[in-house]
Amino acid sequence: MAGLLCGTKRKKQVSDLHEEGKNAINAPMLPTGVDIHPEDTLLEENTERIMLDPTSRENLKFKDLLKVLIDWINSELEEDRIIVKDLEEDCYDGQVLQKLFEKLSGRKLNVAEVTQSEIGQKQKLQTVLEAVNELLRPHGWTIEWSVDSIHSKNLVAILYLLVALAMHFQAPIRLPEHVSVQVVVVKKREGILQTAVVTKQLTSTTEMMMGRFERDAFDTLLDHAPDKLNVVKTSLITFVNKHLNKLNLEVTELESQFADGVYLILLMGLLEDYFVPLYNFYLTPESFEQKVHNVSFAFELMQDGGLKKPKARPEDVVNLNLKSTLRVLYNLFTNYKNSE
Predict the structure, then answer these.
(1) Which of 186, 138, 144, 192 is nearest to 164 (CA)?
(2) Cβ(331)–Cβ(308) under 8 Å?
(3) Helix (H, G, I), strand (E, B) or coil at 210
(4) How far apart are the C-alpha atoms of 232 and 230, rounded to whole Å?
(5) DSSP 3-state assignment of 184?
(6) What is this structure's pTM?
(7) Can you give the residue ranges of the Calponin-homology (CH) domain (predicted)?
(8) Which residues pair with 52 in a beta bridge?
(9) Mean pLDDT for the chain?
(10) DSSP helix/strand/coil, 85
(11) pLDDT in tens, 170-214
(12) DSSP-derived 3-state class of residue 195
């Protein structure tokens, strides 16, 4: 009989906790349709759980961000034969994050290759996140992720981490701008569940995101001496036309005429004195992807010629970002200005 009473008491405690969670979650301030699981309300004192509002999941920009990041990870880890399909299910145990960080940083982490237990997974995550935080924190990043949030498949925390890595390592991708989501935050204070809806900004503008780590002479020029911009552009136009004129080509607008990558490729061939086979690039590119391919190929030719990797992304050149185009052309100018 005593055992039966204890069992009944435990069931009532769990039932009370579920009822407490239900009452808190059904507060008027919460968006409708939030999918709450019983475990989301079973919190320790002074802890919290964050859930993504389903309406945010259906946002087209949010879906685009997921796709861009998944495609980027799969491209980076192709040699490891790792295929990511779902960020929550594939990133929580630390395996993918470990491989991605090692590939991007060139640094090998001292962790077990395969970890099945929860303790082992969290230990791996701890090592990976310590390395990530050590790298990013000096650059002013606010750490919006933790071992517990990643391991509990908190998609917002996972996205913050991946966006930060993509931006820091200047990934050759274009993150959708101004992606924000609403999350439901459930906290337990003095035995009472408290709920709130919070807006989280995952991305800002491309200029702000990519400019976070890169301030150079062109930033200063455009911010403080825009009157001198035309002088620089004129010098660069004179330089590129000196060589492109050999093919009866002429440039009058830097940002638009180099955006499809064709002139960049031809210019590299002229500067290095070789013919670029037409099957290596799109002579009349039509899609965004074809233009990115061309600019990326031009960047490869530059590096083959001994130049440093351009401080610009192919996507930004294609998207008519003047500063990015100026950086690429100025790099060519400084290296080939005396060539005939």
Answers:
(1) 144
(2) yes
(3) helix
(4) 5
(5) strand
(6) 0.56
(7) 63-170, 230-337
(8) 183
(9) 79
(10) coil
(11) 787 778 888 999 888 887 777 777 788 888 888 876 655 554 444
(12) strand
Name the amino acid, one letter, at 227.
D
Pull the structure tokens for residue 213. 């780590």
Determine the Cα–Cα distance for residues 225 and 231; give it in Å rounded to an integer.
Answer: 11
Rg of the chain (C-alpha set): 26
Give, in order, the Cα–Cα distances in Å from 199 to each of 49, 53, 58, 265, 270. Answer: 15, 10, 15, 44, 52
Q: What is the pLDDT of residues 55-96, one digit of tens each?
A: 888 889 999 999 999 999 998 898 888 899 999 999 999 899
Closest CA to 324 of 315, 335, 333, 334: 315
Q: If we measure between CA atoms, which residue out of 119, 120, 80, 118 comes closest to residue 99?
A: 80
Q: Which residue has the tokens 């950086």?
A: 327
Q: Say how far apart CA 5 and CA 13 lie, in whole Å.
A: 12
Give the three-class secondary structure for 300.
helix
Distance of alpha carbon 5 from alpha carbon 163, whole angstroms: 52
